[in-house]
Amino acid sequence: MADTCTAALFTSDGTRDGDVRLNPEIFGIEPNESVMHQVVTAQLAGARSGTASTKTRAEVRGGGRKPWRQKGLGRARQGSIRAPHFVGGGVAFGPRPRSYAQRTPKKMKRLALRSALSARVAEGNVKVVQTFDWSEPKTKRAKAFLDAVDAGRKVLVVLGRNDRIPERSFRNLRGVAIVEPGQLTTYDVLWADTLVFTTDTVGSIGGQETYDVTGTDFVEDTGGES
Fold first, then answer.
1. Could you read off the pLDDT of 26-50 as tens digits, one per residue?
2. CB atoms within 10 A of CB 173
3. Do 211 and 119 share a domain, yes or no?
4. Stretch 160-165: mean pLDDT, rounded?
5. Residue-range definition of the domain harbouring residue 164
6. Rounded to whole angstroms, how far apart are CA atoms 46 and 67?
7. 164 and 127 share a domain?
């Protein structure tokens, strides 16, 4: 699997510069769909605010006295006009503030992220840039780069903390999200049609600080199997 775990390598202007081999333990495993589903569900649930609230009959204003006498009127007996079946009454079994957070083990999160990354690599939707050596931020240049690498409608660009110029270049583009390697989640990977890494950030996913591209990382035949 290590021989087939590759991604297209580009220069900062979008020119193809061969392929680069990726860590098969991160980008080359068999995707576990059930774990990915569980982790994404937990992440979306944790993002819910949980602030929806309604008042019960004990909290609404009014209803302190009996609306009419118990007997003799032919009507059903009532104790308060703030009962749930009255207009303006309290809500029965309505939403209350709560936490939707779900506990997800760290091992499951790591497996889900590696599964999502491996799926994107298998689809050929992971692009690696040597480095964004741009002298100044330009949105037009970032747009031209994405067009050159044939990125999809939704692009996730994984940049390092010091990549300020490319960050300012990409941030105003529609459908482009920017994230640091340590903040990458399974939902982010599955949301995007295309993932763009630098040679530094693609290595940090595997726990390394940098990913030094050497001669052994390149695939000799760029037009053959990747």
1. 999 999 999 999 999 999 999 999 9
2. 15
3. yes
4. 91
5. 6-48+102-217
6. 44
7. yes
d(CA 36, CA 120): 13
223 inside domain: no
Do you know the residue count of the chain? 226
Is the residue at 168 inside a domain?
yes
Q: How many domains does the chain have?
A: 2
Residue among 24, 3, 13 at smallest CA distance from 220: 3
Phi-psi group of 62: left, alpha or beta (phi > 0 → left; psi -120 to 50 → alpha; rest → beta): left
User: Can you spell out the DSSP letters for 56-113?
Assistant: -TTTSS---S-SS-SSSSSSPP-S-TTSTTSTT-PPTT------------HHHHHHHH
Burial environment of residue 211 by CB neighbours within 10 A (0 to 12, 13 to 18, 19 or more): buried
Strand segments, DSSP code E, in the chain are 6-10, 16-21, 126-129, 155-158, 176-179, 194-198
- Residues 124, 65, single domain; the answer is no
CB-based burial, 41-55: b 16+ in 10 Å, e otherwise = ebbeeeeeeeeeeee
Rounded to two decimals, what is the model's pTM? Answer: 0.77
